[in-house]
């Protein structure tokens, strides 16, 4: 089974990129690949992952250990299961630093409370000795972020960092990620199914479907002028809190494809209302559609005169 | 006959389908020498659901919205208070009479994986309520099941398949079919789309709206996602720590939120538009949601409210009418 097929993208220093997709689209596998954390028996069969000049795919075990955490760090979705329940929170943050060479044990120890303050955990001096179960979901996610930034990595990968959280807590975690990436000039890859979160946080968006990038570009272009029918439909299928009057949602029919049994041609064609004959047999490549935007589509939405009418 | 029928009585005087009066639900946790702690999950709720409407119930995790939904359909007995359905007090009704009322009220659950028995064929899952109420058997039941599957967008040929053979969205359709097969008038839907992928959510939302029109259903739609609730609901009730803090029409609550908590919730919801997002300033709350074991005095939101005054910690504001049909429980409504 090919979970991720021929993904190419780059991220600039200090840039925030959102990778959006539904379950099974390959967004998490893409992120895990960057850190070479693809779970067994999965493996990266081809391709390169360049971090500056270094190729992550060909690093030795020693090099990859150093790379993870100190150059690039990951923040996982579920802070409940990603923290060790029997170790004090402060100790776990310290460990994250001790595992790498950037700081001495003494320095690591002294950095814990300032880092907890930096991720705005209130009463850090007292809470440093607490255990994870004494923290709320949002505070645990802050602890995860504290561990992530403890070695001052230049790339932060956040995999659904707010999905398990309430909306008011989600808002504060997003604000925190934005501030931290500005403060450290760190690049952020935000992996999420939530398009709205990406609209506020990221400068660039990558939309994935069936293990492929189907569209990418500057955030504004993707949201205002999507060219791939999947992106276009997804944006119109969302109920919005700012909607006036009541319009029926435009639903995408059918299901995402089974990755072990992908359709021929464009992988979205069975669900696409704008397909032409060519889509059934030939897979389009990810081509430039102007202004730094790319789409993998034979049709492109700008060539459809009245798409809303087609969907109704 | 030329005489016309008398005009129908105006709906304003028609009794509501459901009336919740001062409902309290406490759960005892642990047991010690001195007694046990009590979780105040639902702590004195008044609520009305009118025939044919969708009332959205929003709040964050732990606010008691699911518990309230379960108390309403009598899955949990209320600790105190009354639940009137068509003017019958369910908390005082037992046995066969309660069974007959419950035929009218069904529930759709959040998790389409956990709420279907994996060992039962889909046809049996959907037919089970028919058997329970002795409404149909054999061929008649099968026909009714197939009919219901069809209106829920399921292929009736799949009647002998098992839940694991279906996707999450299809399983939710099975859950909806099971609720619909008895031809109920009232459905409590507890987070019916939150476990589904984005592209599937819209399918289920549209299906529920279609079914409502077609079968004149009344919904209590419980969800934490304000965007979905705004889309689905005619009226919205906002819950915080076991209490309703605001109720009003969707337009009123959206455009003129009265309770600070409603305003905070709304400001926290992102929209899929980078220009609007650049301008949006979420009101961030300090502190954490207090424990429902020991809720704060006065207004329960005062510990986190940006505009709380002395009185808020001392006197609990009642849920009262601030304008026509718009209720809020706040000493300083609309001031945030």
Please characterize this protein's 3D structure.
- The complex is a heterodimer of chains A (312) and B (336).
- By secondary structure, chain A is of the alpha/beta class.
- Chain A is built from 13 helices and 10 strands.
- Chain A has helices spanning 27-34, 61-70, 79-82, 89-98, 105-118, 124-127, 137-149, 167-184, 195-201, 219-224, 229-236, 277-281, 307-311, and strands at residues 16-20, 50-51, 54-55, 72-75, 155-159, 187-192, 204-209, 212-218, 287-290, 293-295.
- Chain A has an 8-stranded mixed beta sheet with strand order 4-5-6-1-7-8-10-9, sandwiched between helices. In chain A, strands 2-3 form a two-stranded antiparallel ribbon.
- In chain A, helix 4 crosses helix 5 and helix 4 (89-98) packs parallel to helix 7 (137-149).
- Chain A is globular, with a radius of gyration of 21 Å.
- Chain A starts with 15 loop residues before the first strand and ends with a helix.
- The model of chain A has no long low-confidence stretch (mean pLDDT 91).
- Chain B is of the alpha/beta class and 336 residues long.
- Chain B is 31% helix and 22% strand.
- Chain B contains 11 helices and 12 strands.
- Chain B has helices at residues 65-72, 95-102, 122-132, 138-151, 168-180, 198-215, 226-232, 250-255, 260-268, 274-279, 310-314, and strands at 18-29, 37-49, 54-58, 80-85, 88-89, 105-108, 186-190, 218-223, 235-240, 243-249, 320-323, 326-328.
- Chain B has an 8-stranded mixed beta sheet, sandwiched between helices. In chain B, strands 2-1-4-5 form a 4-stranded antiparallel beta sheet.
- Residues 1-11 of chain B have low confidence and may be disordered.
- The chains are: A alpha/beta (312), B alpha/beta (336).
- The interface between A and B is large, with 44 and 46 residues.
């Amino acid at each position: 089974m090919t979970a991720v097929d021929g993904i190419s993208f780059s991220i600039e220093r200090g840039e925030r990129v959102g990778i959006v997709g539904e379950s099974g689209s390959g967004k998490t596998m893409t992120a895990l690949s960057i850190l070479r954390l693809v779970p067994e028996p999965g493996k990266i069969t081809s391709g390169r992952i360049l971090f500056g000049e270094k190729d992550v795919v060909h690093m030795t075990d020693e090099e990859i250990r150093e790379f993870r955490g100190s150059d690039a760090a990951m923040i996982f979705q579920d802070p409940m299961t990603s923290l060790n329940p029997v170790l004090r929170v402060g100790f776990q943050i310290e460990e994250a630093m001790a595992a790498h060479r950037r700081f001495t044990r003494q320095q690591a120890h002294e950095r814990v409370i300032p880092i907890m303050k930096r991720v705005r955990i209130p009463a850090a001096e007292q809470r440093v000795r607490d255990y994870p179960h004494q923290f709320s979901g949002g505070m645990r996610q802050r602890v995860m972020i504290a561990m992530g930034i403890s070695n001052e990595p230049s790339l932060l990968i956040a995999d659904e960092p707010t999905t398990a959280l309430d909306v008011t807590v989600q808002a504060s975690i997003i604000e925190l990620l934005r501030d931290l990436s500005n403060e450290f000039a760190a690049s952020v890859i935000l992996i999420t199914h939530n398009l709205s979160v990406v609209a506020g946080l990221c400068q660039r968006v990558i939309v994935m479907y069936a293990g492929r990038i189907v569209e990418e570009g500057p955030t504004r272009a993707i949201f205002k002028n999507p060219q791939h029918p999947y992106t276009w439909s997804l944006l119109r299928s969302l109920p919005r809190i700012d909607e006036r009057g009541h319009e029926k949602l435009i639903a995408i029919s059918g299901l995402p494809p089974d990755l072990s049994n992908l359709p021929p041609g464009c992988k979205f064609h069975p669900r696409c209302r704008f397909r032409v004959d060519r889509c059934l047999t030939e897979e389009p490549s990810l081509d430039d559609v102007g202004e730094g935007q790319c789409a993998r589509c034979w049709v492109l939405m700008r060539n459809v005169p009245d798409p809303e009418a087609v969907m109704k | 006959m030329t005489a016309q029928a008398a005009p129908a009585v105006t709906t304003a005087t028609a009794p509501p389908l459901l009336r919740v009066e001062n409902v309290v639900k406490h759960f005892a946790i642990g047991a010690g020498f001195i007694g046990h702690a009590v979780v105040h999950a639902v702590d004195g709720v008044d609520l009305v659901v009118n025939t044919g409407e969708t009332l959205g119930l929003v709040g964050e995790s732990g606010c008691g919205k699911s518990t309230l939904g379960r108390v309403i359909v009598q899955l949990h007995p209320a600790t105190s208070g009354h639940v009137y359905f068509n003017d019958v007090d369910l908390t005082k009704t037992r046995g066969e009479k309660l069974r007959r009322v419950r035929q009218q009220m069904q529930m759709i659950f959040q998790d389409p994986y956990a709420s279907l028995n994996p060992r039962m064929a889909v046809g049996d899952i959907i037919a089970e309520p028919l058997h329970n109420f002795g409404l149909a058997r054999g061929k008649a039941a099968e026909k009714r099941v197939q009919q219901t599957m069809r209106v829920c967008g399921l292929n009736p040929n799949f009647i002998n398949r098992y839940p694991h053979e279906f996707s999450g969205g299809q399983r939710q359709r099975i859950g909806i079919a099971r609720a619909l097969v008895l031809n109920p008038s009232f459905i409590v839907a507890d987070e019916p789309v939150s476990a589904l992928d984005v592209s599937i959510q819209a399918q289920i939302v549209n299906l529920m709206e279609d079914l409502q029109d077609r079968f004149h259903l009344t919904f209590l739609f419980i969800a934490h996602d304000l965007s979905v609730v705004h889309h689905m609901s005619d009226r919205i009730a906002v819950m915080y720590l076991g209490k309703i803090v605001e109720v009003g029409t969707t337009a009123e609550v959206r455009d003129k939120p009265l309770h600070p908590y409603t305003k905070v919730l709304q400001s926290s919801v992102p929209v899929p538009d980078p220009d609007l997002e650049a301008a949006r300033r979420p009101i961030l709350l300090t502190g954490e949601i207090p424990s429902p074991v020991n809720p704060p005095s006065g207004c329960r939101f005062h510990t986190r409210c940006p505009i709380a005054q002395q009185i808020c910690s001392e006197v609990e504001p009642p849920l009262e009418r601030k304008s026509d049909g718009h209720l809020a429980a706040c000493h300083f409504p609309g001031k945030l």
